[in-house]
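Give me the fold.
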Amino acid sequence: MRRERVGFAVCGSFCTHAKVLEALEDLTKEYETVIPIVSETAGNTDTRFGTSDALLERLRELTGREPLMDIPSVEPIGPKGLLDVLVIAPATGNTLAKLAAGITDTAVTMAAKAHLRNGRPVVIAMASNDGLSAGAKNIGELLVRKNYYFVPFGQDSAILKPCSLMADFTLLPQTIDAALRGEQLQPVLLR
């Protein structure tokens, strides 16, 4: 088991939660410490894709830890140096916009801010319906910022949703490895 401590932050994009939980299951087999973090929206919203209670229970089962769900619970990540890498999966367009603008009004954005103060990597596994429209500038902003690393992504449904972008969640382990070395996994844009 690897000793690097992984924070795993889950945002909305409810339709991707099944894929994200599969990726998390693989990570928990590889890393001995995985700390779950949940945005207030993901942690409190029931959708046609599942209930918030089911999501929180699955996170507990996989990590053996209680998910952190508010700003006061994640703020110590920075001062105490609790993580080696922070993963945000799925990272919604809303979360990307807030990170690009320096807004820290959710558990996930505060976790990122707290973690970044230590100069450690944040891995973004995006799922955004407006990635090639309104959200494009935020993705561009984060691509050039120090300590942000993207799980390679591409259009997930070019005909039906031409502006939608989604990470290949199966590439999360390789992206984490590269980020821990200070490198962006390439190619970042998938076909």
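The mean pLDDT is 97.
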